[in-house]
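User: Quick sanity check before I run a bigger batch. Here is a single chain. Can you write out its predicted 3D structure?
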Amino acid sequence: MHRRIAAGIAALTLAVGLSACAASGQSYADLERDQTDQDRLPVSTPGGGSDDPLAIDADSTRLVAVQGDTEIFLASATEQGQPRICIIVFAATEPFRACGDGDQVTLSDSVNRYTVLSDAAVDTQLDPDEGWTKISENVFTRPVEPTTSDTQ
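Assistant: Done. Predicted structure follows.
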Protein backbone atom coordinates (compact mmCIF):
# COMPACT_ATOMS: atom_id res chain seq x y z
CA MET A 1 0.00 0.00 0.00
CA HIS A 2 2.83 2.40 0.83
CA ARG A 3 4.30 1.78 -2.62
CA ARG A 4 0.99 2.77 -4.24
CA ILE A 5 0.93 5.97 -2.19
CA ALA A 6 4.56 6.73 -3.06
CA ALA A 7 3.90 6.03 -6.74
CA GLY A 8 0.83 8.26 -6.66
CA ILE A 9 2.77 11.08 -5.02
CA ALA A 10 5.58 10.73 -7.54
CA ALA A 11 3.11 10.86 -10.42
CA LEU A 12 1.38 13.93 -9.00
CA THR A 13 4.71 15.64 -8.40
CA LEU A 14 5.61 15.01 -12.04
CA ALA A 15 2.25 16.41 -13.10
CA VAL A 16 2.90 19.52 -11.01
CA GLY A 17 6.25 19.93 -12.74
CA LEU A 18 4.42 19.87 -16.04
CA SER A 19 1.93 22.49 -14.77
CA ALA A 20 -0.99 20.11 -15.07
CA CYS A 21 -4.24 20.82 -13.24
CA ALA A 22 -7.38 18.67 -12.96
CA ALA A 23 -11.00 18.97 -11.75
CA SER A 24 -12.25 18.82 -8.17
CA GLY A 25 -15.64 17.96 -6.73
CA GLN A 26 -14.38 17.04 -3.23
CA SER A 27 -14.92 18.91 0.04
CA TYR A 28 -12.17 20.49 2.14
CA ALA A 29 -12.66 21.47 5.79
CA ASP A 30 -10.01 24.20 5.45
CA LEU A 31 -12.29 26.05 3.02
CA GLU A 32 -15.40 25.84 5.22
CA ARG A 33 -14.62 28.69 7.62
CA ASP A 34 -15.33 32.35 6.89
CA GLN A 35 -12.62 34.21 4.99
CA THR A 36 -10.60 36.84 6.87
CA ASP A 37 -8.30 39.56 5.49
CA GLN A 38 -5.33 37.28 6.24
CA ASP A 39 -6.80 34.66 3.89
CA ARG A 40 -6.65 36.89 0.81
CA LEU A 41 -3.87 36.15 -1.66
CA PRO A 42 -1.23 38.78 -2.36
CA VAL A 43 -1.46 40.50 -5.73
CA SER A 44 1.57 38.58 -7.04
CA THR A 45 -0.28 35.26 -6.99
CA PRO A 46 0.13 33.00 -10.02
CA GLY A 47 -3.17 32.42 -11.79
CA GLY A 48 -4.31 35.97 -12.15
CA GLY A 49 -3.17 36.85 -15.64
CA SER A 50 -5.54 37.08 -18.56
CA ASP A 51 -3.60 34.40 -20.46
CA ASP A 52 -3.77 31.94 -17.53
CA PRO A 53 -6.52 29.34 -18.11
CA LEU A 54 -6.90 28.87 -14.35
CA ALA A 55 -9.27 31.24 -12.54
CA ILE A 56 -8.79 31.26 -8.76
CA ASP A 57 -11.93 32.17 -6.82
CA ALA A 58 -10.72 35.10 -4.68
CA ASP A 59 -13.51 34.53 -2.14
CA SER A 60 -12.43 30.92 -1.52
CA THR A 61 -8.79 31.49 -0.57
CA ARG A 62 -7.68 30.48 2.94
CA LEU A 63 -4.33 30.81 4.64
CA VAL A 64 -4.07 27.32 6.14
CA ALA A 65 -0.54 27.31 7.58
CA VAL A 66 2.60 29.36 8.11
CA GLN A 67 5.96 27.63 8.41
CA GLY A 68 8.75 30.10 9.07
CA ASP A 69 8.67 32.52 6.11
CA THR A 70 6.42 30.24 4.05
CA GLU A 71 2.67 30.79 3.79
CA ILE A 72 0.43 27.98 2.51
CA PHE A 73 -3.00 28.77 1.01
CA LEU A 74 -5.84 26.64 -0.36
CA ALA A 75 -8.32 27.91 -2.93
CA SER A 76 -11.07 26.77 -5.23
CA ALA A 77 -10.56 27.50 -8.91
CA THR A 78 -11.89 26.67 -12.34
CA GLU A 79 -10.13 25.79 -15.55
CA GLN A 80 -12.13 25.56 -18.76
CA GLY A 81 -15.31 25.28 -16.67
CA GLN A 82 -13.98 22.43 -14.51
CA PRO A 83 -13.62 22.87 -10.71
CA ARG A 84 -10.16 22.59 -9.15
CA ILE A 85 -8.58 22.67 -5.70
CA CYS A 86 -5.29 24.59 -5.54
CA ILE A 87 -2.48 24.78 -3.05
CA ILE A 88 -0.51 28.01 -3.33
CA VAL A 89 2.79 28.36 -1.50
CA PHE A 90 4.54 31.67 -0.91
CA ALA A 91 8.14 30.82 -0.08
CA ALA A 92 11.23 33.01 0.15
CA THR A 93 11.72 33.04 -3.61
CA GLU A 94 8.39 33.33 -5.39
CA PRO A 95 4.87 31.91 -5.19
CA PHE A 96 4.10 28.61 -6.86
CA ARG A 97 0.98 26.46 -7.10
CA ALA A 98 -0.47 23.08 -7.93
CA CYS A 99 -4.09 22.38 -8.79
CA GLY A 100 -5.94 19.17 -9.23
CA ASP A 101 -8.95 17.02 -8.67
CA GLY A 102 -9.71 13.85 -6.85
CA ASP A 103 -8.62 13.28 -3.31
CA GLN A 104 -4.97 14.39 -3.48
CA VAL A 105 -2.84 17.22 -4.87
CA THR A 106 0.90 17.36 -4.19
CA LEU A 107 3.43 20.15 -4.60
CA SER A 108 7.15 20.16 -3.78
CA ASP A 109 9.75 22.86 -3.49
CA SER A 110 13.43 22.32 -2.70
CA VAL A 111 12.72 21.96 1.04
CA ASN A 112 9.25 20.49 1.58
CA ARG A 113 6.57 18.39 -0.05
CA TYR A 114 2.99 19.55 0.55
CA THR A 115 -0.01 17.29 0.04
CA VAL A 116 -3.65 18.36 0.10
CA LEU A 117 -6.15 15.63 0.91
CA SER A 118 -9.90 15.94 0.55
CA ASP A 119 -12.09 15.36 3.60
CA ALA A 120 -12.86 11.88 2.24
CA ALA A 121 -9.17 10.89 2.20
CA VAL A 122 -7.64 12.93 5.02
CA ASP A 123 -7.57 10.08 7.54
CA THR A 124 -6.56 7.30 5.18
CA GLN A 125 -3.72 8.32 2.89
CA LEU A 126 -0.53 9.51 4.63
CA ASP A 127 1.49 7.66 7.23
CA PRO A 128 3.06 9.77 10.04
CA ASP A 129 5.78 7.10 10.26
CA GLU A 130 6.87 8.24 6.79
CA GLY A 131 7.52 11.76 8.08
CA TRP A 132 4.19 13.42 7.25
CA THR A 133 3.06 16.22 9.58
CA LYS A 134 -0.49 17.58 9.51
CA ILE A 135 -0.32 21.40 9.28
CA SER A 136 -4.04 22.08 8.69
CA GLU A 137 -7.27 20.14 8.34
CA ASN A 138 -6.39 19.12 4.78
CA VAL A 139 -2.68 19.86 4.29
CA PHE A 140 0.28 17.69 5.24
CA THR A 141 3.99 18.28 4.78
CA ARG A 142 7.28 16.48 5.06
CA PRO A 143 10.86 17.34 4.13
CA VAL A 144 11.95 16.59 0.59
CA GLU A 145 14.27 13.60 0.57
CA PRO A 146 17.68 14.48 -0.89
CA THR A 147 18.59 12.82 -4.16
CA THR A 148 21.89 11.05 -4.74
CA SER A 149 23.29 14.16 -6.47
CA ASP A 150 22.34 16.27 -3.42
CA THR A 151 24.43 14.12 -1.07
CA GLN A 152 27.62 13.83 -3.11
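Helices lie at 2-17.

User: Great, the batch can go ahead then.
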